[in-house]
Automatic annotation (TrEMBL):
Native organism: Paenisporosarcina macmurdoensis
Pfam families: DUF1385 (PF07136)
InterPro entries: DUF1385
Parts of the chain that traverse the membrane: 85-110, 130-149, 187-206, 212-233
Protein name, as recorded: DUF1385 domain-containing protein
Keywords for this protein: Membrane, Transmembrane, Transmembrane helix
Length: 289
């Protein structure tokens, strides 16, 4: 999936080896457009949008990838009840929030459990953040061992390679794309790591005791942490060509060693097709992926 200024495009490989596309115009709700101009708030809006949009794209891909073209009509009826009631976008947002809850609160309880060993506030916050990082990294690592997610991460790597080749003005051939790095500075998954680091600093400003207050403030601070992390990501992106300061973005790149994998040539073809389609639809600058 590639995102342009006004559109997002997904390409998938069908069973008969043909490539199929799904493209969504970006919804320009007036309220969203206004909110997107406000620093800190715009990050939260962007994440909610990404969760909703991504969910629609994944739904398309999982609906189609194992269906032979021409036979997809029979599958149309198979929409689950939850999907009908809530809509695909809402499910995306809800599952994002659910994950956020788990990965925010579990570290709180784990750190609190070790209160007898590490009683100081500083120690507790560092411990909580370390648990959070460990949980996130091991979660990403273990899901990446499943064949499905491994493929997703290969496509993710393929997307980065395409963008890297494009930014060097190389013709988008499989060979030119494959030799590129599978890491990209502007990657959205770097964001995950920044939320852990930013969260740690923000937690110093609020009370850690008693436990219920800690739980409540962690939940209430979720949008704050997301909003600030988004600004940090934007800032590191802006500094990517500045000597020394460019290293600020490196933790995000390291995380991509987990969230991307080396793609196969066939997968690179799909990523090139998807990107080319987006460029056709939208002759403007590609901002994110
Ligand atoms: Zn990425």
């Amino acid at each position: 999936m590639f995102g342009g200024k006004d559109h997002t495009v997904t390409a998938i490989r069908r069973l008969d080896k043909s490539i199929d596309y799904y493209h969504l115009p970006r919804e320009k709700k007036p309220l969203f457009q206004k909110l997107k101009k406000i620093p800190f708030v715009r990050g939260v809006v962007a994440i909610v949008e990404a969760a909703a949009n991504g969910s629609k794209h994944i739904n398309f891909a999982s609906d189609r990838y194992d269906v032979v073209p021409g036979q997809e009509v029979e599958k149309v009826e198979e929409v689950s009840k939850i999907q009908m009631v809530l809509g695909v976008a809402a499910i995306g947002i809800l599952s994002f929030l659910f994950g956020k809850f788990i990965f925010t609160l579990l570290p709180v309880f784990l750190a609190d459990f070790f209160d007898f060993l590490v009683p100081s506030k500083t120690g507790q916050i560092v411990l909580e953040s370390s648990f959070k990082l460990l949980l996130l990294l091991s979660y990403i690592f273990f899901v990446s061992l499943t064949p499905l997610i491994k493929r997703v991460f290969q496509y993710h790597g393929a997307e980065h390679k395409v963008i890297n080749a494009f930014e060097q003005n190389l013709p988008l051939t499989v060979q030119n794309v494959q030799i590129q790095s599978r890491l990209h500075y502007r990657c959205g998954s770097s964001f995950i790591l920044f939320t852990v680091i930013v969260g740690m600093f923000i937690y110093f400003l609020v009370p850690t005791d008693p436990l219920w207050l800690r739980v409540v403030n962690r939940i209430l601070l979720i949008p704050v942490v997301l909003g600030i992390s988004f600004e940090v990501l934007q800032t590191t992106n802006a500094l990517r060509n500045v000597p020394v300061l460019r290293y600020l973005g490196y933790p995000g790149l390291w995380l991509q060693l987990l969230t991307t994998k080396e793609p196969q040539d066939e997968q690179v073809e799909v990523a090139i097709a998807s990107f080319t389609k987006l460029r056709e639809i939208e002759k403007t600058h590609v901002v994110s992926n």
